[in-house]
Amino acid sequence: MIHQLSRLLNGLIVGILSVSFMACSEDVAFNELASTDRPFSPVPPTTDEEIPPPSSDGFFTKTQAVDVRSHGGDVDILFVVDNSGSMDAEQNQLANRISGFMNIIQDLNWQVAMTTTDPSKNTNDSNFKPRNWGDGGFRPFDSDDGQHFILKNRQQSNDEAQRLLARAIHVGINGGIEERGIRSVYRAIEQRHLSSSHREFFRPGASLEVVLISDEDECSNYVCTHQDAYRSSPLNLIELVNREFGSEKKFSFHSIMWIPNDKSCKSAQNVGNTYHAMSQLSDGVVGSICSKNYSSILSDIGHKVLEQVTSIDIDCAPEDVKKPGAKPRVLITLANGDILLPHQFKLKGRKLTLQKPLPEGKHTVSYLCPQNK
Predict the structure, then answer these.
(1) pLDDT, average across residues 234-249
(2) Which pTM does this prediction carry?
(3) Which of 135, 345, 365, 368 has a 20 to 30 A CA-CA distance from 259?
C-alpha cells in the first residue's frame, strides 16, 4: 500500500529545487531547500587529497558556479487522467491506487492541478454533463462545477489534499475516444495567457512534474493527422516549456501506461509508445497502468525528484592527474567558505549527487578536465 511507502519515504524528500547548470562563467539556478532542511556542517579537508591539483599539461581546472536562490523549493504537479470509455476498470480503482500520494510529497512546497486527455474544450462528466476539463482545462477539486482548481500545501493539510485528489481523479469515462495527453499539457501551458488559474499554477521558478495516467497512447496509438498535430509531439512540448519558462526549467513527464514490450499488461488498450518516448526525453519515470497499485511507481517518481534536488551536472568527467584511474578529486566550496568532504557527495560520470540539497548562496565546484574533452 502507498501509505506503507510513505513511511519509508518519510523525511526523504525535503525540498525541491529548480536546478540550472550552465558554463562556468554563468550562475546556475539551484533553488533553495525547504525550511525543514538542516544546513551542511562540513569540516575543511586536512590534506590536499580533497583539493584538485593545479592545471597541468593536458588538463585544466574547471570552476563552476552553483547559485542556490531563496525562491526555490517549489514543485507544480499536473495530473493528466484518461477519461475515455476504455478506462472503466482503471477509473473504478484509481483513487485507491494513488492513496497516500500526498504523504510522499508532504515536505515539498507543492501545487497540484488536474486535467484530462480529451482534446475537446468541453468533455463529459460521468453524467454526460459538459465540463471544461478538456483541451488542457483544469478539473476543479471542490466539486464537479466548483472553482477550486489548485491544491496548495499552504492551504490544505496532507489528509485533506489527499481526499480532494482522490475525489477529483474520478473524471468519468465519457470523454473523447481519442486521447491526447501530451497535447493537454501543451494546451494547459498555452492557457496561462488566458486563464488566471493556469497562470497561478505554472510558477516560473518551480519544477514541473506531469503524471499521466492512460491505458492508450497519444492519439489512441494512431498517427496524429489533426491540424494541430504538432501539439502532440514530445519534442515540441519540450520546446514549448523551454520557450515559455526558459531552458533552466526542470520538467519531467511521468507516464503510467502500457509500457512497450510489457506482455503481462492485459487490461490496457494500446501500447504507450509516444508517452514512453515523452518520458525518456524528459527523464521521467514510467510505470504500468496494469499495476494493482502505484506505490512503486510513485516511489520511483519521489526518488527522481530527490535526484533533481541533490544533483549537479558538471561540464566534464573529472580525472586524476597524479593517479590515472583513481577516484577524481572534486572540490565543492560553500558560500560561507566551508568545503564538503568526499563522503558527502558521489560522482558518477558528469553527475555529482549530494547527500542533501545545498543551502542558499553562491557556491563553486572545481575539478580537472582533460584539454581534449
Answers:
(1) 94
(2) 0.73
(3) 135
C-alpha cell at 262: 510489457
Strands 251-257 and 207-213: parallel
Nearest to 32 by CA among 84, 68, 81: 68
DSSP for 267-331? S-SS--HHHHHHHHHTT--EEETT-S--HHHHHHHHHHHHHHHHEEE-SS----SSSTTSPPP-E
Q: List all residues 6 or more positions away from 44 whose beta carbon is below 8 Å from its beta carbon.
A: 338, 339
Where in the sequence of the chain do the CATH 3.40.50.410 domains occur? 74-293
Q: Reduced to 3 states, what is the DSSP secondary structure of residue 212? A: strand
pLDDT tens-digit map of 151-171: 998 898 888 998 999 899 889
Tens-place pLDDT, residues 71-98? 446 889 999 999 988 887 777 777 777 8
218's grid cell:
497519444
